[in-house]
Amino acid sequence: MTDILRAYLEGAFQTPAMDRTTAEISMELKSLSITMDQRLGLRVVLEDGDLAKFAKLEPTDSERLKDFDRVRDFVLATKPMETREGGK
Length: 88
Fold this sequence. Notes:
- By secondary structure, this protein is mostly helical.
- The protein has one domain.
- It has helices at 2-13, 22-29, 36-54, 61-78, 81-84.
- Helix 2 runs antiparallel to helix 3.
- The longest helix is centred in the middle third of the chain and has 19 residues, at 36-54.
- The model has no long low-confidence stretch (mean pLDDT 92).
């Protein structure tokens, strides 16, 4: 999930996210035109990914679903208008 989010941040916001830490990305998110709720939600997703990767803590199905919903909602809310309206 975090790789998808990082790739989206790079593509949509030209933010180099693939090789940055969660803390570095969190700082970068402050400069983007996104809401505080979006920033906080993305940080939760990134931190959950860190826990799974480094602490080997497996998220529950509920946590996975919440992270999926956060990423999906963020992408839908921030994708370019022409994509939302079929190129118009």
